[in-house]
Amino acid sequence: SQPTIESRFEGCLLGLAVGDALGAPFEGMSADDIAQRYPSAQDLIENPPPEELCYTDDTQMAIGVAETLVKCGRINERELCKRFVANYSPERGYGAGAKIVLEAMVDERDHKVLAANHFPGGSFGNGAAMRVAPVGLMFRHDHERLWREARLSALPTHVHPLGIEGAQLLALAVGIASTIEAFDRDDFFASLAEKCQSQDYTDPLRKASLLSDVGASDVRDLALFGNGIEATSSVVTAIAAFAMSPNSYDATIGNAILLGGDTDTIAAMAGAISGAYLGITAIPFHLLEHLEDQEQGASYLQILASKLRAAHEKI
Ligand code: 8NA
Ligand code: MG
Ligand code: MG
Ligand code: MG
Fold this sequence. Notes:
Layout: H1 5-23, H2 31-37, H3 41-46, H4 57-72, H5 77-87, H6 96-106, H7 111-117, H8 133-138, H9 143-154, H10 161-177, H11 185-195, H12 199-213, H13 219-223, H14 235-244, H15 249-258, H16 263-278, H17 285-290, H18 300-313
Helix pairs in contact: 1-15, 1-16, 1-18, 4-5, 4-18, 5-6, 6-7, 9-10, 10-11, 10-16, 11-12, 12-14, 14-15, 14-16, 15-16
């Protein structure tokens, strides 16, 4: 049976946080190093590191995006910056450029100048894509609006066209995944390619759709799409990890993490798409149970998912 809308909203936000938190201990490691400890995705899911699962900047910023949508019903840049500042804790591990821009926001300096100039033309890091999933849920029924709001959610830190488009693409993947009843590879990739402008995304998307078509499931095939902190070497990777195993949250995030590199972020993005499609029940209970996100017995992310769904019903 189909997951309910409630289940899909929860699955997306918790799927993002669990992917982020499970991937975090491996961030920056090589695939070979990870394989020595975890030969398969299943090994990793069944025997995760024993420590509490702590999420990082990816989830912390996604919370700010969701809170903004709950409060304003849309992306209001001022409110979004306020939420980023209120939630900011540098020990969660922010990207170098993002850290500088956020610290300017905290000090009420003009962060826009830094966002535009710290990297030539702005940042094309995956930091806008890693936090955008709530926008995909909120505007799942209106892809034009989704595309515009995803852009607005990127701008405080990411003004480079590739940083923005990576976020738009990930939001659209989440929006579609949260809406479809059965996964159809051709439809899924055609809808994504239709909105994309840049060859940096359209070319790998085409390759990802073909790869899925031949039923390849070797994690090495996923590695072709990159495992870096640039949006262009991680967003399509996350989408491909989902498309390779649409009916398994475990395989989706496990394979994403086994690639090495930017493990927390790629698993966060892949986990958000997978959770939006499969719902909260697809996420292993022992992982949810070990996630730090507990406030007096309740999960803040679950509460936020429920508020986001209520806001979504009103638009
Ligand atoms: P960002 O804006 O600093 O971008 C990430 C990186 O991408 C930069 O540091 C550059 O190396 C590179 N980059 C981006 N734009 C350009 C450009 N125009 N020219 C040359 N290089 C460029 O930060 P972000 O928020 O996009 O980064 C997201 C990543 O940061 C995620 O992986 C997230 O998990 C986090 N992160 C954390 C740690 C950590 O300390 N735990 C390490 C790496 C990344
Ligand atoms: Mg992170
Ligand atoms: Mg096109
Ligand atoms: Mg990361």
